[in-house]
Amino acid sequence: MQLPAWFEIGSFVVLGIILLVDLLLVVKRPHEPSMKEAGLWVAFYVTLALVFAGAMFAFAGPEHGSQFIAGWVTEYSLSIDNLFVFIIIMARFSVPRKYQQEVLMVGIIIALVLRGIFIALGAVVIEQFSWVFYIFGAFLLWTAWKQATDNGEDEEETSENPLIARIRKVVPMSEKFDGGKLRTTVNGKKLFTPMLIVFVTIGMTDLLFAVDSIPAIFGLTQSAFIVFTANIFALMGLRQLYFLLGGLMSRLIYLKHALSVILAFIGVKLVLHAMHVNELPFINGGHHIEWAPEIPTYVSLAVILGTIVVAVVASLLTPAASKSKLDARLEEDSRKSMNKVSGH
Question: From the centroid of its chain, how far is CA 216?
Fold first, then answer.
């Protein structure tokens, strides 16, 4: 893919400025956005992504334009899945609604940094070792199976990540939040606030999701530029989407099944691509396997969009979705957090 240097540099400059402005707005005016405000921001970011997709079609051609859309939709869907975890984290640590925007923005920045590192490493590995597609494909198939069979009940409600538990023991920490501050003063003593634990938890969650999402998008395109921009657009507006869909998230009961289907599809696509460019001597004598088909980008795009649409429609039409396991989990986490704060 040959894109003008000014287009690539200009894209990153503009996106960087938008993210910086978004961050400054959160820092200067922490608040819980209204549905209208959140909706306008989400519409702005989605429109911006579609405009960028149009530019990709114009400058790079329909193949790479389609790759960007497929990658963006996939990463956006996986990012929405992040929101389920973020909701639980916010409830478990009783983060004040007014400061949840700040927490989400920090989480997005951490995710961008981690994904940037994974993308850079992935691009280098793919360039040097084509057999890594076998590993990526197998990993995505395993992830899809795990997501489809996970009932969310493996961990005990009272269990805590060992790293988080160790931080609590080693780092002097206050019992309550002090706005959005990481440090506070209690009885003349400088202490960290529980916000530190929230940031660490968000960061660990971002790391886990980056491990899943980067192989997925590399299954749709090998262009590091498309991979990184698709990830940026997927994360932009995620903060506002959190508040816009907060009440609707628990109704999307089939989203995780849709994501497992998408990950399995991309996993199969990666394995077929690995067979098509095979260089492993113990597979077909080190020659590519002619009968292994390459799945076109437009087919991938149709499967991804179709799966998401079916899952969303089915979820919204299912009466049981109005009271899902996530609702019960949130209620329980909120109750335990309130009891902890009140000392009961």
Answer: 12
Q: Kindly calculate the radius of gyration of the chain based on its CA atoms and give it in whole angstroms.
A: 21
Q: Provide the pairing of β-strand 189-192 with 183-186.
A: antiparallel
Q: What is the pLDDT of residues 199-241, one digit of tens each?
A: 888 877 777 777 777 888 888 888 889 999 998 898 887 777 8
| Structural tokens at position 218 | 């590399």
Q: pTM for the full model? A: 0.73
Largest distance between two CA atoms of the chain? 73
Query: What gap in Å lies between CA 174 and CA 193, rounded to an integer?
Result: 5
Q: Where are the domains of the chain?
A: 5-342
Q: Cα–chain-centroid distance for residue 186?
A: 36
Would you call 162 exposed, middle or buried from its count of C-beta atoms within 10 A (0-12, 13-18, 19+)?
A: exposed
Instruction: Report the distance separating Cα 96 and Cα 338, nearest Å.
Output: 12
Separation CA 35–CA 1 (nearest Å)? 40
CB under 8 Å, gap of 24 or more: what pairs does 12-20 form?
15/229, 15/232, 15/233, 15/236, 18/48, 18/236, 19/109, 19/112, 19/232, 19/236
Rounded CA-CA distance 326/343 in Å is: 25
Cα–Cα distance between 197 and 200 in angstroms, integer? Answer: 5
Nearest residue to 216 (alpha-carbon basis) of 137, 126, 307: 137
Separation of alpha carbons 238 and 16, rounded Å: 16
pLDDT tens for each residue of 156-205: 444 555 666 777 777 788 877 777 777 888 888 888 888 888 888 887 77
Query: Do 147 and 260 meet the contact criterion of CB atoms below 8 Å apart?
Result: yes
